[in-house]
Structure formats: C-alpha cells, structure tokens
Specification:
- The protein contains eight helices and eleven strands.
- Helix 1 runs parallel beside helix 4.
- The strands form two sheets. Strands 2-1-3-4-5-9-8-7-6 form a nine-stranded mixed β-sheet, with helices on both faces.
- The protein is α/β, with parallel strands linked by helices.
- The protein is elongated, with a radius of gyration of 37 Å.
- The protein has a domain of 206 residues: Brix domain (Rossmann fold).
- Helix 3 links the parallel strand 1 and strand 2.
- The termini are far apart.
Length: 331
C-alpha cells in the first residue's frame, strides 16, 4: 500500500515537473509551441504499449497497428506494470506517457485468463483519459498470411477509405462508441481535397452482431470503366481480425463540456475604404490627390507645333486656290 502511494506521488511529481518546465532555447520554445492547442488540429499521434503479460497474437496485433500508423505512432515494447485503465488511479501511467510522447490516442494490450488478447483504445484530452473502449481480438490473420501481388501493396502514409457496414453502428450505443474510436485511430489527418490516384487502401468494418465487428484491411485497384470515374476493386492484404466488444467508459459530463468548447471565430482584419453592398457586392473607394494642372511641366512640343503650322498652311493654300475663279475671255 505504501509502495503504491509513493509510486503515485512520483508520477505526479514527474507530471508537475514536465508541466511547468520553461524553454531555455529557441528550439525548446518551438517544440512547446508545436504542442500547444490549435484551432485546426493536425493528425493525432498514437501511443502503443503493452502490460505486464501479453500473448504472441497480441504482440503481432500491436506491431501491425504500429506499421499501419508508422508516421504518427510511438511504440513501447517494454512491459509496463500497474496500468489498469478502467480502475481509478490505474490510468496515471498512461497519462504520464501520453504527456511525455505528446500522443492523444492510446492503444494498450494485455492478456489474462479472464480477458485473453485484450485491446484497449483510449482518447485523451489535455493528456487526461477522456474515454475508453475495450475489445477482445479473435481470428487474427497477419499481413504475412495473405498472398497477393506486392506491387498492389498500399504505400505508407496514404489516405484511406473507411467503410462501416451494418445497422449496429447506428443502433447499438456500444458499437457507435467503437466506431468513433476506430475513426480516430485510422483516419489520420483531416484534409479537404483528395487526389484519387493517392487513395490506395480501405479499412472495412462489418458489424456481424451487436458485440462483434469484423475488421479487415484491403488495397484498392483502379481499373478502366469507360467513364471518368474508374472502377475500383478490393484486394485483401491484411491484417484482419474479429473485435469482440467487452466494456467501455464514457467521458464524464464536466470533462466533456470542457473538451467540446469551440474557439470563437477570430475577427477579420478590417479593410480600409471597402464596403459590401447587397446588390453590387464588394465596393471600394479610391482616393486621388488633387491635381494641379497649371503647375504641371509640359514636354517640348516644337516638332508638333511645326507640323500643325505646316498642315494649317497647306489647308489655307488649298482654300485660296479653290476660291479663285478661272478667267473667261469675252469676245
């Protein structure tokens, strides 16, 4: 009992020391600013770690999840004691590792007689556990167990399609929560525009029953269809597994209220001399300084003056010749 209390005090002391640390160089300052909250979030990092006891199947599952999210994931291979996410005080180590690695998603694997091949997926807010979902892994097939043309393998870091098939994802509360977790885990960074040529993978989640979901990973092949939109074919490349829902923990109302706060829209910078009209749209005013025409220096126009005189002289000579009447002889 005394040992556990000392351990908790140690973790809280480490948490406090990291929290109040001030930057002493520009590099450290940039690193802290990178971790600061943002109005538009970038892709979330995932922390993958394991408990005191694991199985070979669960180790393969954690390793392949890490390979699927290699660019945005941190993998701890050492055994970690006293991590019990669903017990009070058992999530302290997870929160400490989340703060240390700047990860907002946690995947924790453990194995016991009561809960074999146990996988816990959790989200954090401000590096505190927000919510958790616990599933059991069954019928696991690794990447190496699938045979296919290696040229069709998805590229690392490509944007995936995610398909959820089954009414359970809309009707069953537990599967709704699991759907949210899988979306956060697999989607990566949210983008507005997408190049279809770069989409080469798909995650397919099928609700087999009210507590079982079949998960598989497929490669996308684009084929000619005779139109602008290509024909797509799915090639299963693995891994695949059955996720059996066991238990979950929803966020408490206080933490949910804080996490759901949205930042106020920043006031747009005022444009000078610009107004908007319902009919004309955007209207701008242009101010021109007073022009003093009399004081403006004129260029030398001697050549032009000579030409004007010459033209005027020719015009006058033509008029004079036209006005003269021919002499008539009288007999």
């Amino acid at each position: 009992m005394i040992f556990s209390i000392l351990l908790l005090l140690l973790f809280s002391l480490q948490f406090t020391m990291i929290k109040i640390r001030t930057p002493k160089s520009q590099r450290a300052k940039r690193a802290i600013e990178k971790r600061a909250p943002k109005l538009v979030e970038t892709g979330r990092k995932t922390l993958i770690l394991q408990g005191t006891k694991t199985s070979s199947t669960l180790n393969e599952v954690l390793t392949e999840i890490y390979h699927l999210k290699k660019e945005n994931a941190v993998r701890y291979t050492r055994k970690n004691e006293n991590i019990r996410p669903f017990e009070s005080g058992g999530e302290t180590s997870l929160e400490f590792f989340s703060l240390k690695t700047d990860c907002s998603l946690v995947v924790f694997g453990s194995h016991s007689k009561k809960r074999p091949n146990n996988l816990v997926i959790g989200r954090t807010y401000d590096h505190h556990i927000y919510d958790l979902v616990e599933v059991g892994v069954e019928n696991f097939k690794s990447l190496e167990s699938f045979t296919y043309d290696k040229k069709q393998a998805p590229h690392a870091g490509s944007k995936p399609f995610i398909a959820f098939i089954g009414e359970g994802f809309e009707n069953v509360e537990e599967l709704k929560h699991l759907k949210e977790m899988l979306l956060e885990l697999l989607r990566g960074e949210v983008v507005e525009n997408l190049n279809l040529a770069g989409v080469d993978r798909a995650y397919v989640c099928t609700a087999v029953s009210s507590n079982r979901v079949f998960f598989t990973h497929c490669a996308l092949r684009l084929k000619k269809s005779g139109s602008i939109v290509p024909k797509m074919e799915l090639v299963e490349v693995g891994p695949s597994m059955d996720l059996v829902f066991r238990r979950h923990r929803l966020p408490n109302d206080g933490l949910r209220k804080i996490a759901m706060k949205t930042a106020k829209d920043q006031a747009k910078k005022k444009e000078k001399n610009v107004s908007k009209d319902a009919v004309e749209g955007k209207v701008g005013k242009i101010y021109i300084p007073e022009q003093k025409v009399g004081a403006t220096a004129l260029p030398n126009k001697a050549k032009g003056v000579k030409r004007e005189r010459r033209e005027a002289k020719m015009k006058n000579s033509g008029n004079d010749s036209a006005s003269k009447k021919p002499k008539t002889s009288s007999e």
